[in-house]
Design goal:
alpha+beta; seven-stranded mixed sheet; 36 helices; 44% helix
Length: 921
């Protein structure tokens, strides 16, 4: 059996101003917090949460939660009665009390003053808290993790893990290392661990060197044969095939088929990084001539046959705070650290993925090349517009469906369509599909077009690392400019382009040769879904400082992309070093304050604005060349943003590069200064590009309002719409003046950069789809019903809950957009939100079939959203459909030859899976 997914826990997450207003003694009962908007958030399992459960005497929280959920499910199948209502309320109350983790609290800091005050102590429901740590993700959003005072000392002791407290460290780095206990992770069997020194190599390469200079602008110089000292194993180590099989079996269950897994991202005491599967024992036997002895990080000689995993010193962040391997492991076991996995490499890689605008923005493409690049995405969208339910399923579920996945398909409208094609007439399904098509068009309009290729986790050359571990000369099997990539090897592809976000310029893209031979195929046989880099070039530095602790590269063999990738010199940003101190609490707090906010995103946006501006100037112009310099310096300023979080004083991007007011304030004391000021005003990156309207809703609203207002003014002044005036060949002086000021006042940049051109192409192709809403014909929703009578009184009570649901969902959607929450966080919090409303509905009508019919009549007799019934009763409706369709599910699979229908250039046939009645949800 695979490890069951850990249940969702939730915690309070509250702005500091709420605590401040309550004089730092907040009263907030659990039921009130659940009803409030955004007071509680869901969390995945972590080492910290497992410690909290242990210290509170909870042996198996997940099992208790699952038992309670099973009891709720059982109650929903019983006839409705006052007893069942009472029982289901009691069970939900128990479920919430199990899921709520009182000892874990997150505070969003509204002010620096609040943060300093919070650290003096506060209470929630008379329970005291102390500051624990600021996580990387939390600090970007000015959020700090606090812990219940009764368990603080023990948690702090475990977090320190017996390290040498007198050792000087960089406070921000220590804080990041401590925060690893908050990472979502799944415990696996404890391996036999050794720690080895990293594999360091030296090579020479032509680079562009950027560093802060004496002026406010960076110094840039081109260096030939620049010496690069490189840690080839930065962030990864090795695990044996035997241990790899054990972990894969534990995580995947019987579906692992006793196979190894390419790699796992690990967590342990002070440990973060990838373990890739490599037979280091076989290496010792065959390459090291049967000598199994190696030297660990402390210089002790050991036998490699005694170990399952070899962690590197770049993975174990504070390894040198311990006297020996035994000392480190003794402390880790004593403090109850579990060896756990935060993510894994996939079983197989996809055949196509969507790019993003950063990958495409620096390519110089002809109109024909641009259309060829976009054509597969255009065709994919057009194919689904013709109302073939089979094509709709492929669009919604992807091209690689198979029977093994069928048990994991969600109980949603797509599964309903796979059971009964009449669901294609359901107004909810029609609306959902149209919404998803619109979203797909909007994604494409911001550069998210389909390309052949996939994302794969990055591994250094494990052969090089093995050579280093056994004290052999490091040569590796791959040469400069080469990669080993099993996916592309199997397809006989010889050259690919590599990308990694965030990107700033074309120097961040690499074209690499895909190579293999018998020796490589043997030693790399276990790494089937990773990309193995050579040890002898600056690929990682070029791709904006990538490392191998789970970073992924997108690779594609698209001929237009590969042909137009220039392999421009790597940009090396000269990094400063932060001062080491013996960290005290005040140092960590100061490190948090320096790191609050996320400047990397805004820096990247400014660079994108420069790329858009640059496309409007001739290549040989001073404006183009100046912008080229500024764009390349963008990588330096991204690095400075990271350095700032480490407590390093570094210069920000000059304000006159992106702010017109700052440009106007530039001095004009000499002709040279006047000329510089003039060019700065012309190339000031003060506007986001046009395509970013599809990223920022507020920008879309501003642009639409501006165009609408300009159009009205144009009609008043010239008796014609704005677009007609633009096309008018006989423009008056006043018209030309009007158009000039209209252009200058636009809230977005309209230069013909690559991604703007992609955006205009998709707007032109799908203008009608973006502007019109599809409607459905009459739909008989009785096919979803259970056929159970119900009381009108229950209907009325639940109607009030739906009103609250509609408000809460709308509020959360706006919150998620404004905060730009990631998909995992949105998914977990939405699950929690739905659970809240399920509990409220089931407390009124606990019988699932009766409740289903109430909600169907409530939602399907109006033109309003039907999401409520699908969220609350999705499983019941799916089971009703299955029963009425002989428990058959239809799904499309790729055809080997000619199929039943075509979609996006591929042939498909329909297959069926008969679900047993006892498999009902």
């Amino acid at each position: 059996m695979a490890k069951e997914k850990s249940c969702h826990k939730f915690i309070y997450k509250i702005p500091s101003k709420r605590l401040s207003q309550s004089d730092w003694k907040l009263s907030l009962p659990l039921q009130t917090a659940i009803k409030n908007k955004n007071d509680v958030v869901a969390l995945g399992d972590s080492q910290l949460l497992r410690w909290i459960c242990e210290l509170n005497g909870i042996k198996d929280l997940d099992q208790e939660v699952r038992n309670t959920q099973s009891q709720i499910k059982h109650q929903k199948k019983l006839p409705k009665s006052e007893e069942s209502k009472s029982k289901i309320k009691e069970l939900y109350k128990k479920l919430y009390s199990l899921q709520y983790q009182k000892d874990y609290f997150c505070m969003i800091m509204n002010t620096k003053k609040d943060y300093l005050r919070a650290n003096k102590g506060f209470t929630i429901n008379q329970y005291p808290y102390r500051r624990l740590v600021g996580t990387n993700g939390g600090i970007k959003k000015s959020t700090i993790t606090y812990i219940g005072s009764p368990i603080y000392e023990e948690i702090k002791k475990r977090m320190d893990n017996g390290r040498d407290l007198s050792k000087p460290l960089i406070p921000a780095k220590l804080e990041a290392y401590q925060a690893l206990i908050c990472s979502s992770s799944t415990p696996v069997s404890m391996p036999r661990i050794a720690i080895v020194k990293d594999c360091n190599v030296t090579f020479k390469e032509d680079v562009i060197l950027i560093q802060d200079g004496n002026s406010d602008e960076p110094e840039m110089s081109r260096k030939k044969d620049y010496k690069i000292n490189y840690c080839d194993s930065d962030g990864y180590g090795l695990m044996s095939p035997e241990y790899s099989r054990i972990v894969n079996k534990e995580l995947s269950g019987d579906s692992s088929n006793e196979n190894t897994i390419s790699g796992i991202n690990t967590r342990f005491a002070w440990t973060k990084g990838m373990l890739f599967t490599f037979d280091f024992k076989e290496f010792a036997k065959k390459v090291n001539h049967g000598d199994f002895t190696f030297q660990d990080a402390w210089g002790a000689l050991r036998d490699v046959r005694d170990y399952d995993v070899l962690l590197t010193t770049s993975m174990v962040k504070l390894w040198d705070s311990y006297d020996s391997l035994e000392h480190f492991l003794e402390c880790s076991y004593e403090n109850h650290y579990e060896f756990s996995v935060s993510k894994t490499t996939p079983d197989r890689l996809e055949h196509a993925r969507n790019a993003n605008y950063q990958f495409l923005q620096t390519f110089e493409l002809t109109d024909d090349e641009l259309y060829q690049l976009c054509e597969p995405t255009i065709r994919e969208i057009k194919d689904v517009l013709f109302d073939d339910w089979r094509k709709t399923i492929v669009f919604l579920k992807g091209m690689n469906l198979n029977e093994l996945q069928s048990e994991q398909w969600e109980h949603d409208f797509v599964k309903a369509l796979m059971i009964d094609k009449r669901m294609a007439e359901d107004p909810f399904v029609v609306g959902k599909i149209h919404s998803m098509i619109r979203k797909r068009i909007q994604m494409a309009a911001k550069g998210s077009i389909k390309l052949p290729g996939n994302f794969a986790m990055v591994c250094g050359d494990p052969y090089s690392l093995a050579q280093s571990i056994f004290g052999l000369p490091v040569t590796g099997l791959l040469k400069q400019g080469e990669v080993y990539h099993s996916y592309w090897k199997q397809r006989d592809v010889h050259e690919i382009a590599c990308f990694r976000a965030p990107m700033t310029c074309h120097n961040n893209i690499r074209r690499r040769k895909v190579v293999h031979n018998n020796e490589m195929d043997y030693w790399y046989q276990y790494i089937q879904t990773g990309i193995i880099l050579n040890s002898w070039d600056s690929t990682c530095d070029a791709l904006n400082g990538a490392d191998k602790d789970s970073d992924t590269f997108f690779t594609t063999n698209h001929p237009i992309i590969v042909k137009n990738t220039k392999n421009a010199p790597t940009i090396e940003c000269v990094q400063k070093r932060a001062d080491k101190v013996i960290p005290e609490e005040s140092h960590l707090v100061q490190a948090n304050l320096l790191a609050f906010g996320d400047e990397i995103g805004s820096t990247t946006n400014k660079i994108t604005a420069m790329i858009e501006l640059q496309s409007g100037f001739p290549k040989d112009s001073l404006e183009y060349q100046t912008l080229e310099y500024r764009i390349m310096c963008g990588q330096h300023y991204q690095q400075n943003s990271i350095d700032k979080a480490k407590g390093i004083l570094s210069k920000p991007m000059p304000k006159h590069w992106y702010d017109k007011s700052a440009c106007r304030a530039l001095p004009e004391n000499s002709e040279e200064e006047k000329a510089y000021k003039k060019i700065c005003l012309e190339i000031c990156a003060s506007k986001k590009p046009y395509f970013m309207r599809y990223i920022y809703p507020e920008l879309m609203a501003d642009h639409k309002k501006y165009i609408n207002d300009s159009n009205k003014k144009c009609i008043r002044m010239f008796q014609m719409p704005l677009e007609e005036l633009k096309q008018n060949p006989a423009k008056t002086k006043e018209a030309l003046e009007f158009l000039k000021y209209h252009q200058e006042g636009l809230p977005v940049g309209n230069e013909p950069c690559t991604v703007n051109r992609i955006c205009w192409l998709f707007e032109q192709e799908f203008q009608d789809v973006l502007q019109k809403q599809r409607t459905s014909s009459a739909f008989d929703y009785s096919i979803l019903k259970s056929g159970m009578p119900y009381r009108k009184g229950d209907y009325k009570k639940i109607e009030k809950i739906k009103v609250e649901y509609d408000l809460d969902v709308k509020h959360y959607q706006q919150h998620a957009k404004t905060q730009r929450l990631d998909k995992d966080e949105v998914s977990m919090n939405r699950t929690l939100l739905i659970q809240k409303f399920k509990a409220a509905c089931e407390a009124i009508c606990p019988h699932e079939k009766e409740l289903c019919d109430i909600l169907l009549d409530m939602c399907y007799t109006t033109n309003k959203s039907k999401q409520f019934v699908w969220d609350i009763c999705g499983e019941t409706m799916i089971n009703n459909l299955l029963k009425k369709n002989d428990y058959v599910i239809n799904y499309p699979v790729l055809a080997e030859g000619h199929g039943e229908f075509e979609y996006a250039g591929e042939s498909f046939i329909m297959k069926q899976r008969k679900q047993r009645e006892d498999e009902e949800s």
